Amino acid sequence: MNRTLVIIPTYDERENIEHIIRRTLDAAPVDVLVVDDGSPDGTADIVERMAHDDHRITLMRRSGKGGLGAAYIAGFACAREREYALAVEMDADGSHPPERLPAMIAQFDNDPPLLGCVVGSRWVKGGSVVNWPAHRRFISRAGSLYARVMLGVPVRDVTAGFRVYPTVVLAGLTLDTIESRGYCFQIDMTRRIDASGLRIVEVPIEFRERELGHSKMSGEIVVEAIWRVTVWGFQRAALGLTRWMRRG
Fold first, then answer.
1. What is the three-state SS of the chain?
2. Which of 4, 95, 179, 180 has the fewest CB atoms in 10 Å of its CB?
3. Using one digit for the tens of pLDDT, what is the confidence trace for 165-211?
4. What homologous superfamily is domain 4-247 in, according to CATH?
């Protein structure tokens, strides 16, 4: 068995899923778990046919659209149960280049005891975004900056969804308390890893906007992220003030 499980959540990704799975398996010695939230377009059926012919592919069918965070948490549990060393978050739409997986996974060979997460980053030196309109770039950069300031996390691409985690680190987090459904899940994971005292390393990637299918980004997802980051930020400030007053 490979030591790394790539988790790909899907909802209506029949146009992309076969291609991204094949690219992923060609890019690195990994297994792939697709967590499908009841896609009405038959995404899961495509994966099931592929899994029949390739033991490296597994399908998890879920009954409804439970959100990105819930899909990843289910995938993390599967990775731990099957004793994988690493679990990868990756989108199905091709925006995350699986060809960067070897470089991301190799980070754990350099300093495994202290490393809690490797992020495929758009906003560090060497990273880039292709085919994004100016307003999407602004929202992403501004969101990451706001989260960094409010939460004090040392990560430039806080909302990045291309990540590698050691399963032993995931086992130490209280994932059942995570309520974030959309891309705010990534911010929540970042602050939890940082609070655990482990390092987060960013590896540059070229992020490409999807060419097929429809983006899952919405105003509701953005509002959720702003609201939760604001609450977490004030909680962090209140805790810091309390500690300062006790020392005084």
1. CCCEEEEEEECCCCCCHHHHHHHHHHHCCCEEEEEECCCCCCHHHHHHHHHHHCCCEEEEECCCCCCHHHHHHHHHHHHHHCCCCEEEECCCCCCCCHHHHHHHHHHHHHCHHHEEEEEEECCCCCCEEECCCHHHHHHHHHHHHHHHHHHCCCCCCCCCCCEEEEHHHHHCCCHHHCCCCCCHHHHHHHHHHHHCCCEEEEEECEEECCCCCCCCCCHHHHHHHHHHHHHHHHHHHHHHHHHHHHHC
2. 179
3. 999 999 999 888 887 767 789 999 999 999 999 999 999 999 998 76
4. Spore Coat Polysaccharide Biosynthesis Protein SpsA; Chain A (3.90.550.10)
Locate the domains of the chain by residue range: 4-247
